[in-house]
Amino acid sequence: MARGTTGRRTSLWRLPAMRALVGATALGFASYCLTLASLPAYAVQGGASADTAGVVTAVFLLVTVAGQGLVPGLTARFGPAPVLAAGLLALGAPAPLYALGDSVPWLSAVSAVRGAGFAVLTVLGATLAAQVAPAERRGESIGIYGLAIAVPNLVAVPAGVALVLGDHPVLLAWLSACPVLALPLLPVLARRVAREPVATTSSRAAVRAALAPSAVLLVVTLAGGGLVTFLPIERPDGVLATAALLLFGVTGALTRWQAGLVADRVGTGRLLPVALLGGAAGMAVVAAGLGGGDGWVLAGAALFGAGYGAVQNLTLVSAFSRAGEGGSTAASAMWNASFDAGTALGALALGVVAAGVGLPWSYVLVAALLAATLPLARTATRPA
After folding, report:
1. φ, ψ for residue 9, nearest 5 deg
2. Is 3 helix (H, G, I), strand (E, B) or coil?
3. Nearest CA to 14 among 121, 141, 183?
4. What share of the chain in percent tops pLDDT 70?
5. What pLDDT score does 3 carry?
6. Which superfamily does 13-380 belong to?
7. Are 124 and 75 in contact (CB under 8 A)?
8. Where are the domains of the chain?
9. What residue ranges in 39-187 does DSSP mark as E strands?
């Protein structure tokens, strides 16, 4: 356990590699979050139907999922720093091209390139978060990493929606190029990895071990993808959707950060089922509020965000614990693929369901699905 000369535990924020990881992660996810909920709304403004606007997000995340399985092998061959640099460039450099058109095919084509870069960032970011701190403080380290993701979610998702609904898509496109600014941070991470190489074993055992936590995550991110994609379309005046997504981001940031600290002390077994049920309750409240109670929409978004953030942290901690040290990169790839597949399914499938039964009932069905995942959540926290 890392301690200072006074006997107190050294703050993980003081580690140069942690600060570099936080900076690179925040810039990368700011780009992702700026476009996550705003591009579907941008496509609708350009004439796309509401039930096909989610294709843009789905393409981005499907390419991400496809690329995540390749990251362990690329990292083993070239090293994490060069691969991460390539990923940041692929994620950020094409983003200004969004300003050239608002059709679904064009937005999807640009998103496909960016999705490959996001695949690298997600897998290596999570893996490095498990490596830059002592093993007994892994939950805390993953919590800080989660905070670096959640703060952009807090700020950039509603900001992106506000920019598009306020008719500023060109500014959105250029702001989304921000991952390029993270390149100067990579030498610090490279020095840390040189001392403690990142495990790159892609074993079937590690993937199997990470399967149950990743499946729980997939269901939760499906719900999240449905919320951020279709709430701005259902409430296009911009005020309610922006406020709800802001609350969703605030509570998600807090719980994703703090859940790791608690998990280091009491384990994930007690916390994950509670977080999952909280998320289910939040989605049900949002569904009820869409009938006319804006206050209920805000309360539900806040409650769902709390469950959403905690589940992300707890399932990642469980996946690493079940996979073991040698399987960390394979477990990260599995976990991240589930995260992005779930978000893509939420953005795509919920549009189809909502076209038939309406968005409120679609959210009710999602809440029921979250509650039905409780037995799997208990399995996910047990040793593999």
Report:
1. -65, 135
2. strand
3. 141
4. 93
5. 44
6. MFS general substrate transporter like domains (1.20.1250.20)
7. yes
8. 13-380
9. none
Instruction: Decide if 380 contacts 212 (C-beta within 8 A).
Output: yes
In angstroms, the CA 35 to CA 229 distance is: 10
* Of 231, 236, 247, residue with least CA distance to 354: 231
Query: What is the C-alpha separation between 325 and 218, in angstroms, rounded?
Result: 23
User: Is-contact 194 102, C-beta < 8 A?
Assistant: no
The answer to whether residues 271 and 263 touch, using CB atoms and an 8 Å cutoff, is yes
The three-class DSSP label of residue 291 is: coil
| Contacting residues for 177 by C-beta, under 8 A, at least 6 apart | 31, 92, 93, 95, 96
Closest CA to 260 of 274, 242, 277, 272: 272
* Confidence at 332, pLDDT banded by 50, 70, 90: confident
- pLDDT recorded at residue 4: 43
Q: Are 43 and 167 in contact (CB under 8 A)?
A: no
Which residues have a Cβ under 8 Å from the Cβ of 197 and sit 6 or more positions away? Answer: none
Instruction: Return d(Cα 269, Cα 273) in angstroms, integer.
Output: 8
State pTM to two decimals. Answer: 0.78
Nearest of 176, 344, 165 to residue 245 by alpha carbon:
165
Q: Please, which residues bridge with residue 9 across strands?
A: 3
Instruction: Take residue 298 and report the two structure tokens written for it.
Output: 């805000």
> Pick from 202, 229, 302: which is nearest to 44 by CA?
229
Query: Which two structure tokens, joined as six digits, stand for 126?
Result: 């999570």
